[in-house]
Structure formats: C-alpha cells, structure tokens
C-alpha cells in the first residue's frame, strides 16, 4: 500500500459577484473632541459660567478656528478591484 499524501487541498472560496473594500475612505478623527470633552466635564462639575473653565473654552475656540485640512483624494481601490476582478476570477462559463 503506497503512503498517503500529506498534501492539503487549497481552500476554495465561494463565487463573488463583485469584489469590494468596505469604506476605503475613513474620516479623520476630529482633534477638538478631547478638548470639548474636557470642557463639558468642567461645566458639568462646576456649572456653566465657571471661571475655572475659561482656559478650556479658549483652547476649544482656538482649535475650532484652525483651518480644516483640504479634502483628501478619494481612494481608488474599488475602481481597480472592479477593473481587475475579471482577470483574477477567470473567464465566465457560457451557458448553452
């Protein structure tokens, strides 16, 4: 009796209609969120018109007044996946 092969068959993936990456353009986190959280916590603990929160208010205003970065270029990964997927998948079977 010949020895059994130790070769493992490659797993087969189910057929996909289209290949896509979910949300390739992730939004950047707002840098002012931490300062705003600190300011709201200060207001909650000592009242709205607390004099101890003035420094936080000024730093939040300075953060919000900063110029926003220009919009980033849209990610083109899904375009390229759509374009190249027929080459990866192979030719379609013709039903007769």
Give a structural overview:
The structure is a single chain. The protein has 96 residues and is mostly helical. It is built from 3 helices and no strands. Helix 1 runs antiparallel to helix 2 (54-65). The radius of gyration is 28 Å and the shape is elongated.
Secondary-structure element pattern, one letter each: HHH
- Show unreliable segments: none
> What portion of the residues fall into strands of 2 or more residues?
under 5%
**Integer average pLDDT:** 77
Distance between the termini: 44 Å
Q: What structural category arises from helix and sheet content? A: mainly alpha
Q: What best-fitting shape do the alpha-carbon axes yield? A: elongated
Helical amount among residues, as a percent range? 40-55%
**How many beta-strand runs?**
0
* Integer-rounded radius of gyration: 28 Å
Figure out the total of helices: 3
Task: State the major sheet.
Answer: none
List the helices and strands and how they pair.
Elements: H1 33-46, H2 54-65, H3 77-89
Quick rundown:
The chain has 96 residues and is an all-alpha fold. 41% of the residues lie in helices and 0% in strands.
Keywords:
96 residues; mainly alpha; elongated; single chain
């Amino acid at each position: 009796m010949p020895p059994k092969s130790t070769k493992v068959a490659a797993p087969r993936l189910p057929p996909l209609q289209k290949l896509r990456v979910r949300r390739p353009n992730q939004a950047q986190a707002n840098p002012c969120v931490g300062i705003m959280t600190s300011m709201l916590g200060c207001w909650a603990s000592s009242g709205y018109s607390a004099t101890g929160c003035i420094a936080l208010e000024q730093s939040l205003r300075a953060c919000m007044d900063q110029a926003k970065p220009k919009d980033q270029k849209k990610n083109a990964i899904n375009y390229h996946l759509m374009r190249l997927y027929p080459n990866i998948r192979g030719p379609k079977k013709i039903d007769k």
